[in-house]
Write a structure and sequence with these properties.
The structure is a single chain. By secondary structure, this protein is mostly helical. The protein has a domain at 39-115: Cytochrome c-like domain (Cytochrome Bc1 Complex, Chain D, domain 2, Orthogonal Bundle). Helix content is 50%, strand content 0%. It has 4 helices and no strands. The chain has helices spanning 2-20, 40-52, 75-84, 99-114. The N and C termini lie far apart (55 Å).
Length: 115
């Protein structure tokens, strides 16, 4: 009885791993080109994004938070959510992320999304 239960649990773990871990990555292009910042604002936005956003939204994809790349909301709505926090999203006040840095993050997200 115990052997059957152990075998069933192991089989369930293997099936679960095989079906959930085969998601395709959308963050790296197949063409082999890497992202290059077109301006100083986008470069600063990339730095700020990596510092504040990347842990929950890795490369704009879903992580602890939802995917940003596939989110059709306008950039001002995303900036509002960063400032005020909605749901599990924490709020970032102006002394944490300045208005200029927040605009740069928005430009970076737009540039990355069109990349």
């Amino acid at each position: 009885m115990k052997r059957t239960m152990l075998f069933t649990l192991c089989l369930a773990a293997v099936v679960y791993t095989a079906t959930t871990s085969c998601a395709s990555r959308k963050s790296e292009p197949v063409k082999g080109e890497s992202f290059a910042s077109a301006s100083a604002e986008i470069a600063n936005g990339e730095i700020m994004y990596m510092k504040y956003c990347h842990k929950c939204h890795p490369a704009g994809e879903a992580g602890l938070g939802p995917a940003i790349n596939s989110n059709p909301a306008p950039q001002f709505v995303k900036r509002f959510q960063v400032r005020h926090g909605l749901g599990v999203m924490p709020s970032f006040k102006k002394d944490e992320i300045s208005s200029a840095d927040l605009r740069d993050i928005s430009k970076y997200i737009r540039a990355w999304k069109s990349y």
